[in-house]
Amino acid sequence: MTPSTFFLLASYVARDIARSRTLFLLIVSGLSVASAAILLTVGVLNGFQTMLADSERGWLADIVITPSGDERTIAESARLEAELATMADVEAFSLRSQGQILVRYQERKTSPFLTIGIDTASTEQATLLSSRVIQGNFFESGAEHPNEAILGKIVADSLVGSNDDGQSAEVGDDLYVFAPDGQWKRFRIRGIIDAKTFFPNWSLFLTKQEFEKIDAAGRNAQMIVKVKSGADIGAVLQTLQDQFPRANVRTWEEESKYVKDIMQAVSYITQSIHYLLVLTIFTIVSVVIYINISQKKRQIGILKSMGAENRFILAAYLLESCAYAGVAFIVGCLIFFGLYHLSTLHPVPMLIGDFHIVFSADILVSAWFTVLAATLGGGFIPAYMASRTHIIDVMRGTV
Question: What is the pTM assigned to this prediction?
Fold first, then answer.
């Protein structure tokens, strides 16, 4: 297409739009909302993915190592620590003990809870647990903290009354843990955390030393490994799997399989809405262009009598469709960025994290091509019908 031909097409489209400004505004309004919604579906999906990943990695780091089979302790845990200390791509690691321990609170409620014994000297480097405290304080780095415990938010809530009744165990209260000698050992609640994910919020945390006094069989039950930013997690994973075949070495995604299930459900919902929006754009453009062409059959016949070819008519209405898509997408982006800014300033607190829309440049590119393809697809059929208009039919008044 020569520049002069394109200029002629653009002039025709501009005049056609100028004659129907109200129609143009209505079309752009509808397509703008659809474009913003397409951007929003992808932003929401990315937001859920980011929220879940941040929450799980906040307490599991990047790689999780657990015992294999029925064993409760990681085989060769000392050699594992030594190996991790020499790996250049490993930023930090922390060894934990773990088991189910019976807990009693104020002589009123006794329940078994997942109890995790953490190494206070290394957990702050490998996790974000210390930053998740909502009441009291976390364990000080390197300190033993005898007879002190930290509760997950849901554990604290469940020890008093029923869940979500506004009552909760408080910092400074005492709770009792059933010891191997058959006696109840008293612990003071040092802090309460909201880890923004399920398992730690349902857990009782003791120092590793205190846990192993109660459940020696559950010592060294989990190793978490934080990989340096930009490092190849897959390479670190493979190295550890080769070096320690008797242990389960997995990524945090493999360890937290429920995250994948949640993401599949959210993805199904958002993708379904996404496809319906694409179909909506296709339908809107098809109907509008068809009505527009039906009202201008005589004008098209005159153009053809002046020598306009079929491809000129086809190109004109496809270019008009592109004009609708371009203006609508710009307005849609403005709507989306307004929602994105609002979401960033006011994230929605949820049990599994603080949700906000996540934006990235590839969202814009993908959404633009989606809107453009749907618009061109919707405009092609009526535009092709217009290009096949015969002059003789226009003269007879049959079209």
Answer: 0.76
